[in-house]
Amino acid sequence: MNADLEKKIREGGRISTAEAREIYRWPLALVGELANERRNRAKQGDYDGRGEEVVTYIVDRNINYTNVCDVYCKFCAFYRTETDPDHYVLSHEQIDRKIDELVAVGGNQILLQGGHHPKLGLEWYLDLLRHLRAKYPQVNIHGFSPPEFNHFAEVFGMPLEQVIAKFQEAGLGSIPGGGAEILVDRVRQRIAPRKCDTESWLRVMEVGHRLGLRSSATMMFGHVETVEDRIEHLDRLRQLQDRTAGFTAFICWTFQPEHTVLKAGKAGSHEYLRMQALARIFLDNIPNVQSSWVTQGPAMGQVALKFGANDFGSLMMEENVVSSAGTSFRLTLEEMKRLIREAGYEPRQRNNSYGLVDSAETALAA
Q1: Does the N-terminal or the C-terminal CB of the chain have fewer CB atoms within 10 Å?
Q2: In the CATH scheme, what architecture does the domain 28-365 have?
Q3: What is the SS3 string spanning 309-331?
Q4: Which run of H or of E encompasses 187?
Q5: For 261, how many CA atoms within 13 A lie in the half-sphere containing its CB?
Q6: How many CA atoms within 13 Å lie on the side-chain side of 265?
Q7: Consecutive 10-residue runs of the chain (366 residues): their mean pLDDT?
């Protein structure tokens, strides 16, 4: 063990990529302890009316507006072609019904993502955004990942900056971190050769941040990448965050191999906890880390709160992509709150910018 490096972490010092590789090999319990110290340092002062530490969650709904996609990622079991009998594009009315159900349970955000549809035009997207903003002004539209925006710029024949600005003007509130997978082109060429490269993914985020759109950052690991690739991925995120401060949170999860073309051994919970903890230690400029109960299961999502996470993620009223790959976990709001409380924290509902939207009195009474 490197006592000097451990001391550096406990004191909040920035670690290098070489140090990250060393920490990865340390005992899991120690890496988790250090990540939790980093979590407490980053979230110092996040307490409720009784002095209890807060773990946040959001009530949102994942709406996949289309499953048509011409990228054919090897790790995806969700996409369809236009010739498949079960392909679809949702109408405004179908999307409205989903949002009505969300609002009825106190939700405040939709995660709007789809495949790379080759034929939907610019006005289709702008009309949808204007419609949703006018009808549901209280609901944040967290939508369109970097690969989608690169796809839009190509299909619409427009500069990327102009596309993002038009979406923002029409009602887009923030950008999800989907499509990052591993931000190393050698890996991306193996698992999704038709998807945007690393620089293109990062450029969408940098442009969005410059325009005032906040975003999440993600990593899907446990397939063909190495540990060094994972650390390079984290380093690229940290470098961009140093420039823009636009990432609100980091979320990682393990590859779910069932029903996909890409075949790889399934990474276990031990590996998931180790990488989340390492990410919390390394990403010293991203304030929030979200546990991934959707892929790891509710119990492991709860354990992740002791490995650097301060957020339990979404109630996830609807999820289609991960479940298509054979993994399907569901929670009620009360179950989510119970899991947070059992871990020793006070559950509080948040918005996309991690501001609390329930009053302390409401939370205490729940």
Answers
A1: N
A2: Alpha-Beta Barrel (3.20)
A3: CCEEEECCCCCCHHHHCCCCCCC
A4: helix 185-191
A5: 10
A6: 4
A7: 94 97 97 96 66 86 82 52 68 94 94 78 94 98 94 93 98 96 95 90 98 97 95 98 98 73 64 97 97 89 96 75 46 92 95 85 51
